[in-house]
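Protein modeling request. Please complete all fields; requests missing the sequence field cannot be processed.
Requester role: graduate student
Desired output: 3D structure, token encoding
Chains: 1
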Amino acid sequence: MDRQDWTPSDIFQLSGQVWEACALYADVKLDLFTALAQVGQAGPGGLTPHGLASRIGGEPRATDMLVTALVAMKFLERDGNIVKLTAASRKYLAADSPEYLGYIIKHMSHILPSWVNLTKAVATGQMVAAQGTLATDDEEEREAFLMGMFNTARLQADRVAEALDLSGRTRLLDLGGGPGTYAVHFCRRYPDLTAVVFDQPATEKFARATFRQFDLERRIEFQGGDFLRSDLPGGFDAAWLSQVLHGEAPPEAARLVKRGAETLAPGGLLAIQEFIIDDDRSGPAPSALFSLNMLVQTSGGQAYTQAEIAAMMSEAGLQDIKRLNAPLPPGCGIMVGYKG
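Delivered output (340 residues):
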């Protein structure tokens, strides 16, 4: 679609894409794909829509309608009255797959009500989410957020570990590291590297599960606390802040960069990965839309420009600041600087 020349048809199509997203949200939350995958393990057959309804606790007519939409969206295949998974839905949407993306999809469904209230957020300048993601008492929502971060980070962590040269560095701080996805991939690439993942205490069990999954419990530690208020460990020769600045208002974001720099020994490297807004604020669209997500979800969070991040790093005493040339998703970028 050429977004330089919108047509009425383009605009109408865009306005209805939320329907497709909501259909996908429902499928994942109902574990529809997992139910079909379990049938596939027992033999080559699929299920009728009514048979699928009984497995997921759905009403038969409504499930049949949902199945029809999934077939139309190419998530399912239909042979007469039998429906089966496609190769892609089996790989990415069945919960027993190692490449399962369901957690991030569930997280997106949880934040949808806030986006529905975007008008109010723009009118007031205030977040419209009931509470922060990690503050929720709903364990399923917390798991969806944290493991959703694992889903998305894992898609690019190998490329990031290749682009960020940590040769000769032995001690890394993953500040606000969530389930520790990047710490794991850095340690896998650099055998002499050890790491500390610092994040909210509610994150610990998810991080330790990630360490165990990759057999890295002896090389990666977890420390719980508030990265803006708690005492941070020090003496690191590398620090990694991935997708944490955008959750903070400008003063707190600058303070977080400074705190990260203070954990470094002389010569240490600080790397920041973020959705970065162009300096002329013309895009890119993924970063601009993510900034709106911070408007509805946080008190003061936003995406920052490259110049704004570089200024924070300079104010924190870092030198030789630059943006890496890395093969990342649109809008994402990595800024690096060094402690003198």
